[in-house]
Design goal:
It contains 5 helices and 9 strands. An 8-stranded antiparallel beta barrel has the order 1-3-4-5-6-7-8-9.
Length: 159
């Protein structure tokens, strides 16, 4: 009986290790990067003072295309028919550890980085958060002045 008790801890440890090795196949879990690839549209926005979806809707519809090759196009189809739509192309990176999406763009001839913290809600919904000063630089002074603190953008996959 003593012999069984002396082998029992080793047997339990071996079984636990084998379950952990077979049950945790990381190749089955998609990376955050792979979950971002596709086309997205803005569905809601808020800041520290509340809902700001109307601020963005007044400007137009915002879409973001993230390609497998690390390039992106951030597009704003402006509601003003006399204004030129905005298409900002560049590259992007996803930092799984920090949970940040970085969009590198050139805006009015100046290289610019937009850094968003992100939370993946599900396969088709991501919540992005950035400081209002970052968002205001894109929206312009008039619309940017309507934002305070952290801005949260909810985007949904369109394809």
């Amino acid at each position: 009986m003593k012999r069984i008790f002396s082998i029992l801890p080793a047997l339990v440890a071996t079984l636990l290790l084998s379950f952990m090795a077979t049950g945790c196949d990381s190749s089955e879990d998609p990376t955050d990067l792979s979950q971002f690839i596709g086309s997205w549209r803005l569905v809601s926005a808020s800041d520290d003072t509340g809902d700001k979806t109307a601020v963005f809707a007044a400007l137009g519809s915002l879409t973001l295309d993230l390609n497998e090759d690390g390039t992106h196009v951030l597009a704003v189809d402006l509601t003003d028919p006399e204004a030129d739509d905005v298409n900002l192309a560049g590259t992007y990176t996803v930092n799984d550890i920090a949970q940040q999406l970085l969009l590198a763009i050139t805006f009015s001839g100046v290289p610019f980085n937009l850094t968003f913290d992100y939370v993946i809600q599900d396969a088709d919904t991501v919540v992005l958060t950035a400081n209002s000063t970052v968002i205001a630089a894109l929206l312009g002074a008039e619309a940017g002045a309507l934002l305070e603190g952290d801005v949260t953008l909810t985007i949904e996959r369109t394809s």
